[in-house]
Fold:
Amino acid sequence: VAFSPDGRRLAWGSTDATVKVWEASTGDVQTLRGHLSSVHGVTFSPDGRRLASASQDGTVKFWDVPPPRETSGWVANDAGQ
Amino acid sequence: VAFSPDGRRLAWGSTDATVKVWEASTGDVQTLRGHLSSVHGVTFSPDGRRLASASQDGTVKFWDVPPPRETSGWVANDAGQ
Amino acid sequence: VAFSPDGRRLAWGSTDATVKVWEASTGDVQTLRGHLSSVHGVTFSPDGRRLASASQDGTVKFWDVPPPRETSGWVANDAGQ
Amino acid sequence: VAFSPDGRRLAWGSTDATVKVWEASTGDVQTLRGHLSSVHGVTFSPDGRRLASASQDGTVKFWDVPPPRETSGWVANDAGQ
Structure:
């Protein structure tokens, strides 16, 4: 579970293989899909514009913020091996 | 286990489904109840005024600081799915 | 595993119930004893003068830095319940 | 999973006993070998020049950044006990 540097977002991983991001401005929670297994770690970049998530399936994914969505071009090129 | 940004509080999750917050000024520990399962992650917001906790039951809760207490209006609206 | 804010110390918990602190200036590693079970989380206070460790036995302990040693008066008064 | 302080690197541990480091400038991922068991924690030093990794085998290793490589002289002298 991690706050963004500006404190306006909170992200956490879920055992259902999703990442959730709560937005303080709206109270909404977005569900980010793409991992295949439980997500055990999330962290924002220092500038708050990227979110990284690590899954038990061995992959790490990057997501743009905001709005949170998977940036396919950013997926680590040998993650998940 | 996480210190608040000002270093005056320490929070941690417990396997008994509670969150504990230690206050440097008094030495007291508050017990925050609300989760239904083991709490595996806690983090303070950058301004130190909010605490988020993540539980094995899949929920994330927000708490006001100080005094630490659950702010029901802040519970992520689809957390725990 | 956590660096101190000045980057001159690294602390980590061990499954043998100890906390280890490496000192950059000397290369030495101190072993801090007191927990009864595996230590799964450590964190430095923002000013780097205190170290907190959380154990699977449910307790959280505070240690003075430097030199790292347990400050008995700082043990959270209901930790470990 | 941890970003470097400048946000240009992301490191994470793997269950295959390796540490991976993604470089934003190139998109490459380096694989750091040396641990004998699953790596459960990684953290950058505050100046971003060192990476520490903790493994289930009880050891903590230090790596130079960049390029990430194990600095044998930096291995904690009683880590892994």
